[in-house]
Design a protein that fits this description.
Two copies of one chain form a homodimer. With about 325 residues, chain A is α/β, with parallel strands linked by helices. Chain A folds into three domains: about 5-85, Orthogonal Bundle (Arc Repressor Mutant, subunit A); about 90-165 and about 270-300, 3-Layer(aba) Sandwich (D-Maltodextrin-Binding Protein, domain 2), CATH 3.40.190; about 165-265, D-Maltodextrin-Binding Protein, domain 2, CATH 3.40.190.10. Helix content of chain A is about 45%, strand content about 20%. Chain A contains ten helices and twelve strands. Chain A has helices at about 5-15, 20-25, 30-45, 60-90, 100-120, 130-140, 185-190, 205-215, 225-235, 280-310; strands at about 50, 55-60, 95-100, 120-130, 145-150, 160-165, 170-175, 195, 220-225, 240-245, 255-260, 270-275. In chain A, the strands form three sheets. A five-stranded mixed β-sheet of chain A has the order 4-3-5-12-6, with helices on both faces. A five-stranded mixed β-sheet of chain A has the order 9-8-10-7-11, covered by helices on one side. In chain A, strands 1-2 form a two-stranded antiparallel ribbon. In chain A, helix 5 (about 100-120) links the parallel strand 3 (about 95-100) and strand 4. In chain A, helix 1 crosses helix 2, helix 1 (about 5-15) packs across helix 3 (about 30-45) and helix 5 (about 100-120) crosses helix 10 (about 280-310). Chain A is elongated. The interface of A and B includes residues 1, 3, 44, 65 and 80 of A. The structure holds a DNA duplex (25 and 25 nucleotides).
DNA sequence: CGTTCTTACGTGTGTCGTAACGATC
DNA sequence: GATCGTTACGACACACGTAAGAACG
């Protein structure tokens, strides 16, 4: 068995079972790929392909299993190649980070600033998506690692590194009556029109559950995928915002009042996850180290600042 | 990169870094293996080997990582080959079962009888060892699957199938005073010299813990790796035996009295485990099915029989 | 001086590309 | 008849084996 045969099998499956197209993608001529497939099938002795006439249209049961392990094989080969690259071009390559908007906007900037200083030759790509999608992208090797809070749970294929915990805070235009309410309870929050995240984003699910558990339902007048949109409409006076505490920036958001809400909702834990079997290049490891450092800083900032930052009553 | 290069790397590591010996094992001449290693090293661009003069004496950091992934690669290739075999010689092959003595002697016989009827062409190998060793053997692909109670815990590389639960029973020669004691407590057990399993075998660890937890220490006058030895010395009158309930055979052991002890010790769960990534051939799957069937039967037998089998007081 | 790896060279296998043929829509 | 896959054939590459050479204990 040869690696090229497995490559042809995979290319075939990824190109609608067109041998010609698979060949094209592999920079080979079509008869070569045909031969790969035939030899593989012959050697294994089991029919791998569903044929209609001469045309291949799908995989048999055995073919599907072989395909899966062929992917596994080449993934391991790719790991070996990556080890090589790690030495040849130590500080060069691409770092593909899958993250949510909140991470990309509020957590990653200082990390990436430091990272880019250390590895100026590494191209950083931030692929922003929903937590659910990030899981898929990581498994499909479209990103090297994913940073998110939801959905990445205990998938057995992942190594996950818990990084920091966060909770929600309330934001409202300075002078808004909610800012002087003491204490702020779930009930109080329900008195005002609310602006927060969409379902599936940044802890919205457990936010809603917390209300539901005590039989309350907030009046959410607008929900958005990212914090910036929420802030914008809070400034417009459309309602009070409930956002991740780490997304409140004292300097830039000086026109907004902030109140900690960590007594009302469960803490969330943001994690870094990557596919367990995959070789981690040095700069990838370094990025994760930097991220953890920043996370620790953030953890203490959040914990210390949250109570202290509560705006003075007016 | 070629598979043969990876094979040479592995053979080298497994033969004390002697290129000649590696070549011999691969049925190649030595210069061929040398070339494999050189090409691999060249292509990756990283030094893989520690050299003293011309001689290779070890792996560099990178070399070790490459070796690990080379093993992974060839394991996947082996899986693909196994899929082929599964179709070509459906009912032929070798089934390598790692098990402890207790399993091999008291649980496996009926399973293997049925299995051999279904697959007369499959050679069954029972590799008997200690639970700790079984884990290693399974990881090293010396056995296809392992059946045991201890040590196979939640190792991430394993798929484990809980099969049945069991507990201990007491055995003694008919007429022995312990058989008429009511009830049997841990304290009662400590009054008699005890014969049971060695540490690391058949639940000995948790047996001892149960005594230790209440500050007792049984007088173990003899401990053995397998039940047959224990029974022999019980028959000799050297002490009372504490064995796995499934190892008591009413017909063959009619000269022994048996008392259930499941109220004194925690239940143990015997599991079947195999390496997660490995392709499971059909007859292997069939064996595991048969084992589970037998386990269910055993489970009910144990549960039903244990109280009923208590010998009538004399 | 034997052992062990490297270098050099020839042979044969086999892989890929070109080209012609066959089948299917 | 256009597209897609198989078969046939030739050229080049290369992997392996043989044989000779170099370093090490």
């Amino acid at each position: 068995m040869e690696l090229r045969q497995l490559r042809s099998l995979i290319a075939l499956a990824e190109n609608g079972f067109s041998v010609s197209r698979a060949a094209e993608r592999l920079h080979l001529v079509q008869p070569a790929v045909s031969q790969h497939l035939r030899l593989l099938e012959d050697e294994l002795g089991a029919p791998l392909f569903v044929r209609t006439g001469k045309r291949l249209t799908g995989l048999t049961d055995a073919g599907g299993k072989v395909l899966a392990h062929a992917r596994g094989t080449l993934a391991e080969v790719a790991n070996i190649v990556a080890i090589g690259r790690d030495h040849v071009e130590e500080g060069r390559g691409v770092l593909r980070i899958g993250s949510t908007h909140t991470q990309a906007r509020y957590v990653l900037p200082p990390v990436l600033r430091r990272f880019s200083q250390a590895y100026p030759e590494v191209e950083v790509q931030i692929l922003q998506s929903t937590p659910g999608q990030l899981v898929e992208m990581t498994l499909a090797d479209q990103v090297d690692l994913a940073i998110c809070t939801e959905a990445i749970g205990e998938h057995p294929a992942f190594t996950t590194l818990p990084s920091y915990r966060w909770n929600r805070c309330l934001i409202a235009p300075l002078g808004h009556p909610v800012l002087s309410r003491r204490p702020i309870s779930l009930g109080v929050l329900c008195e005002y029109p609310m602006i927060t995240y969409l379902y599936g984003f940044t802890g919205r699910g457990r936010l809603s559950s917390s209300f539901a558990k005590v039989g309350l339902r907030p009046r959410v007048v607008l929900s958005a995928a990212d914090t910036d949109v929420i802030k914008t409409y809070v400034r417009e006076g459309m309602g009070v915002g409930v956002i991740a505490d780490l997304a409140f920036q004292p300097e830039q958001d000086a026109d907004l009042g902030m109140r900690d809400l960590s007594h009302l909702f469960p803490w969330e834990v943001t994690k870094v996850a990557y596919v367990r079997e995959k070789y981690v290049r040095r700069f990838q490891q370094r990025f994760m180290d930097l991220f953890q450092e920043e996370a620790n800083r953030l953890g203490s900032r959040v914990r210390v600042q949250a109570p202290g930052q509560a705006p003075a009553p007016e």
